[in-house]
Request: fold
Amino acid sequence: MIRTRLTELLGIRYPVVQAAMGYVSGPRLAAATSNAGGLGQIASATMSLAELEDAIAETAGRTAAPFGVNLRADAPDAAQRVKLIIAGRVPVASFAQAPRPELIAALKEAGVITIASAGARRHAEKAAAWGIDAVIATGSEGGGHVGAVPTSLLIPQVAAAVDIPVIAAGGFLDGRGLVATLAWGAAGIAMGTRFLLTSDSPVPDTVKRVYLAAGLDGTVVTTRADGVPHRVLRTTMVDRLDQEGRAGGLVRAARNAAAFRGRSGLSWREAIGQGWALRRSTGRQGTGRRQGGLSWVAANTPVLLHAAMVDGRTDLGLMPSGQVAGLIDDLPSCVELIGAIMREAEACLDRLATFRSE
Ligand SMILES: Cc1cc2nc3c(=O)[nH]c(=O)nc-3n(C[C@H](O)[C@H](O)[C@H](O)COP(=O)(O)O)c2cc1C
Reply:
């Protein structure tokens, strides 16, 4: 058995976390991960309040093991989401992007374990000072919104800077990666792309096949989807986005904002507010007219994500992906995946021990 500060903190068997993925990590994938001994997480940013309440109840019905809910602290209804997490007795809450001290305090007071996300050391230090219990540090190899520092440099830096368990993310695949990051000072791994490519993930098979076909050079970081760096599979649609003029981008963003608003139940003010907050949290706000335009753009992501992950429209949708997709060519179940990772990690530790001499 490999025990770490993370397995102790969360009360899980293995130091393996399923990262939150909008429209992908709902009850089915989260519960399958938790039942396999890792920590499954519901991605709530793309859910309405009612959907989140249902998802919590369904996940609790599917697993008796600890699971988590990932939320955005800048969502206009974040406090209500926190209430649902507490009322549903969810053991763990994790924040996408920056947390807020009062939300951390409310969760901790109710006995919920809190996890922050960080793409840079200063984010981790700030959250640790606010009393967060653990941090997921994600390197630039990762899928979705990413920072600029690669995992191999970010993890040792963050692990040295904070005194809470660090969960390493961005580019993880197998037991060798788990052992490598334990050596860097982390207490476990979180994986998105690898869990998307399991038989327990609800993504249509046609979409999974596109991910499986990608090579190591098959992803690109674009800011054209929502104004902040986003690692996605390189497709004709993404190339078109990158070439599109600013005016065309804004028209499409306004159309998408309308579609997402309809789905999420958010008012226009709230939808635009989320766009602003997304940019503020990544330190990328513009000025004057440019600012107004860019806040619309943030609504693109959920709409483009839904098109691919739910509707299966690989031609129209956005497919966030880590570079690790280039090394994945199978669709194991969560039990098979986590079992293989842990067996390989143990074998790896045994092998490393043979390097020592008297
Ligand atoms: C399809 C997909 C959707 C994602 N959606 C979200 C999301 O809704 N919220 C979020 O905070 N991160 C999201 N992410 C990022 C993951 O939580 C995680 O940081 C990333 O997948 C880790 O890198 P890896 O893919 O190399 O394992 C998404 C990633 C993928 C691949």
Notes: Residues 282-295 have pLDDT under 50 and may be disordered. The first helix runs from residue 5 to 10. Residues 217 and 326 are 7 Å apart (CA to CA).
